[in-house]
Amino acid sequence: MKPYRSGGGPSVTIPIPPSKSLTHRALVAAALADGRSRIIDPLLCEDTMHTVNGLRTLGVPVDLREGEIIVQGTGGRFPARSDPSTLFLGNSGTSFRFLLAVSALGSGQHLLTGARRMLERPIGGLCLGLEGLGARISFPATSGFPPVLVRSRGLSGGKIRMAGDRSSQFVSALLLAAPCASGNVEIEVTGDLVSRHYVDLTTAVMGRFGVEVLREGYRYFRVSAPRPYRAGDFRIEGDASSASYFWAGAAVSGASVTTANIDPRLTHQGDIGFLGILEEMGCSVERGTDRVTVRGGRLRAVEADM
Fold it and tell me: What is the pTM of this model?
């Protein structure tokens, strides 16, 4: 295969699909807000549909429309029901972790379960955190693993400690539910937090819906509660992880690739850092308001901590 030389390759523009991570988080924040929210350009896929259907089961009206989702938030007050509800969440770990925390805010009994592979994924660390905030949780099958039965009565708030080496989604789940607790929530993370940029994504979405998270790096987080989210419009930007493959393609081919739907100056997606590595390697990177252009050049070796 003959490689392209810098400036001699093709020039293409590629619209990047919406971010799944942002879609999950926006759905939860909108569901916990007071009033009607509009999520624009969401990613509708199997995983995000599990979040949609789980919220509907909890009593949140969610309307799918062309290019948008309308969510009628309940402010964390879910309709009371006498019969237990079952949330089947397939293999969507994000849906399971986020909705586990959300389900603890209401009243009644909620059984969260999923596909066979989901039942093998440990969830005990998140459950301990929720119990520290007042949740009542049990495991009908294996302790620390799905399915999980939540006997909801709301979260009282409080201060908890959580290991950072398990899943950043445990921290994100607690943060997302925290504004609807009856008292302030404080989270102390012990050890290094894995996938920490996803927590940045969570706090950014919370901020867009009117909730401020006080923090000390990735060691300590505090949310004042009760303070429901503020309903509003939220546009889902393109997925930086998906875009990174096209940026890499430009680097190795010498082509010029423009990816649309991501503002590299404002995004909180961690994979945007890949652009800096490509620049160190010799690529040209142009950052626009909603797009990035990468032009391949003569590459040089670098040492990078990913």
Answer: 0.93
Both tokens assigned to 13: 């523009």
| String of DSSP letters for 61-100 | -EEEETTEEEEEEETT-PPP-SSPEEEE-TT-HHHHHHHH
Alpha-carbon distance of 243 to 246, in angstroms, equals 5
Distance CA(29)–CA(95), nearest Å, equals 13
Strand residue runs (E) in the chain: 11-15, 33-40, 62-65, 68-74, 85-88, 108-113, 137-138, 148-152, 158-163, 185-190, 214-216, 220-223, 229-230, 233-235, 256-260, 284-287, 291-295
Q: Write the pLDDT tens digit of every residue in 224-238.
A: 999 989 999 999 999
In this structure, are residues 25 and 239 in contact, taking their beta carbons and an 8 Å threshold?
Answer: no
Residues 6+ apart with CB under 8 A from 65: none
